[in-house]
Each structure stands twice: as C-alpha cells, then as structure tokens.
Design brief:
The protein is 27% helix and 26% strand. By secondary structure, it is α/β, with parallel strands linked by helices. The longest helix is centred in the first third of the chain and has 18 residues, at 18-35. Residues 4-58 form the Maltose/galactoside acetyltransferase domain. One of its GO terms (molecular function) is galactoside O-acetyltransferase activity.
Length: 204
Amino acid sequence: MTEKEKMTQGKLYIPQDTALIRDYKRAKELTHYINTSTGEQEEERRRWYQELFGRLGSHAWIAPPLYCDYGFNIFAGDYLMVNYYCIFLDVCPIYMGNHIYIGPHVGLYTALHPIDASVRNQGLEYGKPISIGDSVWIGGHAVVNPGVTIGSRVVIGSGSVVTHDIPDDVIAVGNPCRVLRSITDEDRRYWETAAYEYWDSRKP
C-alpha cells in the first residue's frame, strides 16, 4: 500500500513521500494560479478548480484565495459557493453535496496527528474524512474537525467549532458546536412568503 493510499484511507502515513510531495506541489501551483488570477480570468479559474478538485459540479462559485493540501480529495456537488480565505485540509476526502454555502475563513480540516508525542515526533500523520449533506450553510470563521458528518438542510453558526456529527434540519452553533434548535415548518413558511413577495415585486 502506498503512502497516498494510507493517507486517503485514514491510516498512519509519512507525508514526506515522493508521490505526495509531487501532488502537494501540484496543488500549490494550481492554487497560486487561482489566488493570483484577475476578474477577467474566470474561465481559467474554473478550469484550474476543475483540475484541482477530485470532483466539482456545475454552477460553482469559489472566491479566491482558497488553500488546500492536495485538492484531489475534495468532492463537491452542484451549486457550491465558497467565500474568501477558506482552508480545506484534505488529507482524507471532503465530501460536499449540492447547494453548499461556505462563508469566509471557514476551515474544513481532515488532518490529524497522533496524541502520543513519541509517535507524533516520528512524523507520522493520519486523517478522518468530512461529509456535508445537501443544502448546508456554514457561517464565516467556522471550523469543521476531522471525522465530522453534517446532515442536510443545516445551518452552522459563524465561529462554530464542529467536533461531532450534526443531524439534518437543525441550526447548530458554538464551541463546541451544539444543536440550537430544529428548522421548522414555520421557518419554511416565513421564508417562502418572503421569497414569493420578492419575486412578485420584480414582475413588470
């Protein structure tokens, strides 16, 4: 088993591996192109993101700068929106569904180090994947820790530190992040009415 396979599968691995170093440098080259691009280079940025990510669906809007370790472990569905200065440490896979909104300065961290100092000092690392369902909004400066699964139709409050799984249809906030309340039919009716009034106001 290669060091890359060990890393992606969440096993202990050594990052100073020739293949991993090559992949790491590739990601740094692509993110450099992305992060230094101008507003007139939207088509090029889209191509660089497609080359960087393991999968990137349609209608993605990702504001540079974006930082990641490898890129190939990031899998995103359709309608991904990522705001400025996000960091995705993707030593293990990061799975994101459709209609994901990620605020500025959000960190998705799959990387881990051994708790025992003597093993950690040997340079061994490992990781755990992150999974995010559909229609999720993660507020700015939130951190999602390794191994966390966030359900669908979830709102994560800004500044939250998500250390445990979050179920579907809730608002969760805090450090550590906890469920504040469920998202209810009353919420749905309120926002559907507001949206109807907005679209109705645009009619000629």
